[in-house]
Design brief:
single chain, alpha+beta, 6-stranded antiparallel β-sheet, disordered N terminus, two-stranded antiparallel ribbon
Amino acid sequence: MDYPNDQAPGAPVRSGIPEHGRIPKYYAVKARISGLIEELGEGGLLPTERDLAVRYEVSRETVRQALRELLLEGRLRRQGRGTVVAGPKLEQPLSLASYTEGVRRQGRMPGRNLVSLDRFPCSDALAAEIGAGRGEPVWHMERVLLADDERVGLESTYISVARVPRLDTDFDPDSSFYAYLHDRLGISFGDADERIETVLATPREALLIGTPPALPMLLIHRTSRDTAGVPLERVRTLYRGDRFSFTAHLGNGG
């Protein structure tokens, strides 16, 4: 196979072009707009759909399809009535580090907006995951995740009221929940299980995050245990697929 000398590691082989060389017209336009994105740099204003159609001698619908993919990939973002070059995606480590730590490491300001904090009787399905008995009171805390005041995700946390009895009065919902558990209650995380999948947000979730319902989301389910191995919390977190990527360090387990 013939590889171009300037192909970046991790890029699609042959820039995604099949060996027979026939590609959809929109994809050729997308490749040319990608080059323009590199020239403009972060925050650069893209020409209008009409101007791009004239420049590349294609229909506006062809340009629109190319732009849709670049928007979904997080290469571009809407700003007012225009389209600008987006910044790099946030890299969130797959570890027991909190969302706050991950965002701060990249020079961004983490934040959260509280949607709701409720308590309800624990169900059978939830009991084993958080170490609570059926019918015991459970907290459900839902928060919108922010990075530099940009809404980037939605987090739902379930934890037994017995573990954090004063969550509604002692905890600042804009701060790190993990720091609160460790610093105020002396609870440390030991290990966790995570499952990642790609989903579309529900209409309610899309409204809270401020995205179109068709935007792919990365959904993480996490069940955590403390250092004694006792179940602690269950978290369901949606991350914008156009603003996040995930990293993990893999070691040789022998």
